[in-house]
Amino acid sequence: MTVDEDSRRLAELGYKQELARTWSGFSNFAISFSIISILAGCFTTFGQAWNNGGPVAISWGWPIISVFILIIGLCMAELVSAYPTAGGIYWWAAKMGRPVHGWFTGWLNLIGLVAVTASVDYGAATFLNITLNRFFGLQVSLGTTFTIFVVVLLLHALINIFSHRLISVLQNVSVWWHVFGAAIIVAILAFGPDSHQSFGFVFTETVNNSGFADSSYWFYVLPLGFLLTQYTITGFDACAHVSEETKGAATAAARGLWQSIFFSAIGGWILLLAFLFAATDVAAVNEGGGFVGAIFDSALPGNLATAIFAISAIGQFFCGMSCVTSMSRMTYAFSRDGAVPGWRLWSRVDRNRTPVNATLAGCAVAALLTLPALYAPPGTTTPVAFYAVVSIAVIGLYLAFIIPIWLRLRMGDRFVPGPWTLGRKYKVMCWIAVIEIAVVCVYFVLPFVPAGVPGDAEFTWTAVNYAPIAVGVVLVAIGLWWVLSARKWFTGPRRTVEESVVEQPYGSSS
C-alpha cells in the first residue's frame, strides 16, 4: 500500500493525514517491541514474581501467561488491520459500539499509557541510579531516584518533540539494543558465574516472601507473581497509535503488533531463565527483597554486574522514550475528537507535525502519578507505589483492550475485516482474551503485602496498593462525567476531512 492509499484509507475512516507518514513496517514493530522491553519489565518487576511464587512463577508463569497475551494481541491485530488510526482501540470501540464504549475505552487507554510511561521511566531511573552509583558513587535513595525519574521524563519529552524522524531512527536502534543487549546478558550469566542452579530449582522451586500464609500460595500468592509477565508484555497497542505514521499500516501495524509480543515472549523467557540459573545465592536474593540485582552481585564479579546494569538501564531509557511516543499519539487522537478537557490545545501539532502539547501534558501527569514513590514502607527497598503504578498500567490498558475485543465478538459476521484477519478462529480467541483480562484485573487490585490490608496489625498506608483507588476514582469520575455531561455532546470520532468519503472494504474501488 502506498502513502496515497494509506491517506485515502484514513480519509475513509474520517481523518485528514496530519501526522507525517514516514515510519516503515519495521519501525512500527520496533515501537511495541521497545515498549514491551524485556530489558525493562524483566528487570524491574522480577522481584514481584520472585517474592510471589519464586522460580515457578517465572519459569512456568512467563510462557503460560505469554500465550494468553499473544491471543489478546492477535485479536487486536485483526482490529488494527481494519481500522488503522492513531486513536487505536478507542476508535475501534466507538466504531463497533456506541460513543459510550469509545468514551470509557479512550480514558482507560489513556490512563494506562500514562501509568506505563510513569512506571517505565521510574524503573529506568532506578537502574540509572544504581549504574551511576557503581561508576561514580552517586547516592542510591528514593529522593535521588525520583529526581533522575523527572530528568528522564523531561529528556523523553524533548526527544519526542524534537523530530518524528529521530524517533523512528531511535526505535530501530532500540530493537537491536534489546536483541544484542539481552544476548550479551545471557552470555555473561552463562559463563560468568562459578556455578549454576539445577533444572529442578528453576522449574520446581517455590518461594513465598509475600507475608501471606503458605496455604494461599496457589490461588493468591502465585497469581500476584504473574504481574511480571502481564506488565512486561503490554503497551503493544502502540502499533495502532502510530499507524497514521506507518506506511502500509493495514498490514504492517497488524503484523508488528503480534510479532512484537511473540518475539518478546521468547527473548524474555530466555533472559529470565538465565537469571534463575544464576541465582545460586537464594539467601542474598531474599535479603535483597527479590531485586534482580542481588543475583548479579552475588553471582558475578563487580565489572560484569555493572555491565548488566548499564545495558538494562539504556534499554529501559529506549523503552520509556517509546512509551512517551505512544502516549502522546493517543492523547492527540482522543483530544482530536474533543474528549479531553482543553482538547484544542492537546490536538495541536507543530510545524514538524508533532503533537508537542500532548507530549508535555502526558509527561507532567506521569510525574504527578508517581509522587507516592518518594515513600516506602520501613525495611523495603522498592516502594509499593511503584508496583501500584504498574498495576494501574496493566488494569487500565487491559480493561481498554477488553471492550473492543468484546464488541468484535458481538458483531460477528457484521464485522468487515482488513487484509489481516483471524477468519473463523476469532470466536474462540476473543472469548479466551476476554476471560483472561477479567481474571487479571481482579488479581491486580488486591493487596500485595499483609501490611496493605486494612485491619491488619501492621497496616500502613505506604504499603497500600492504591491501584484500585486510582482506577476506581477514575472510573467513577468518567462515568459521572458521561452521565451528567459528555453523553450530550460526545459523539465519538469526529470527521476532519472536508468532503464526505464513503467507507469501503479493502479491495473495492473508490
UniProtKB/TrEMBL annotation:
Cell compartment(s), UniProt: Membrane
Origin: domain of life: Bacteria
Molecular function terms, GO-annotated: transmembrane transporter activity
Mode of membrane association: Multi-pass membrane protein
Entry annotated with the keyword Chaperone: no
TM regions (residue ranges): 26-48, 60-80, 100-120, 140-163, 175-192, 217-240, 261-284, 304-324, 358-378, 384-407, 428-446, 466-484
Any one GO cellular component localisation term in the record: membrane
Pfam families, A to Z: AA_permease_2
Keywords, alphabetical: Membrane, Transmembrane, Transmembrane helix, Transport
Protein name: Amino acid permease
